[in-house]
Amino acid sequence: MDINYCQVCGEKLTLKQIGDEGMIPFCETCQKPYFKSPAPCVLVVVINEYNEVVLLKQDYVSKTHWGLIAGFITEGENAEDTVIREVKEETGLNVKSYKYISSYHQSQRNLLMLGYLAHVQKAEFIKSCEVDQINWFSINDAILNLREGSMGKQLFEAAMSRFEDLL
Ligand SMILES: [Zn+2]
Questions:
Q1: pLDDT in the model for residue 63
Q2: Which residues of the chain have pLDDT under 50?
Q3: Radius of gyration, CA atoms only, the chain
Q4: How far is the CA of 71 from the centre of ligand 1 (A)?
Q5: Distance 72 CA to ligand 1 centre (A)
Q6: Nudix hydrolase domain spans which residues (predicted)?
Q7: How far is the CA of 2 from the centre of ligand 1 (A)?
Q8: What region, left, alpha or beta, does residue 2 occupy, with left being phi > 0 and alpha being psi -120 to 50 degrees?
């Protein structure tokens, strides 16, 4: 995703040498460099006391595949705040504890996804209007329903391989 114009003043950006970062798009008027940093988000495996996992379907993401809870880190939040907020917003459930697992770079949209495992107590879902379907899955069924090669599946497998250490 290339930025050609300043988001503050609208000036066309030029390339400028910035420290050891190389040639970076730069607004001469605002003296502002535009680094191509990825947008930070969280991706969360949510698991309950019966070892069931939450998967959800969001038609605007995919009509055919189930996925994990995900969301952008917003201004003023650390990653853990986002984990707690997104789980609450998308499922209605309260996170009791969480563990960081691994991070993934999604190159298509230039996202840095921070992967967590979050523990919740089983309860009725209160789903967000952004969520079209939501359900509990056994660990084996969850693996079958996550898209092959997706970040969600990679995180899920990483979380499960470390699951016993994390209990
Ligand atoms: Zn500018």
A1: 81
A2: 166-167
A3: 19
A4: 29
A5: 25
A6: 37-159
A7: 16
A8: beta
CB environment 90-118: b (16+ within 10 A), e (fewer): bbebebeebeebebbeeeeeebebbbbbb
Confidence (pLDDT) at 59: 83
According to CATH, the topology of domain 39-166 is: Nucleoside Triphosphate Pyrophosphohydrolase (3.90.79)
Ligand 1 centre and the CA of 32: distance in Å?
7
For residue 128, the model assigns a pLDDT of 84
Residues 6 or more apart in contact with residue 23 via CB below 8 angstroms: 15, 16, 17
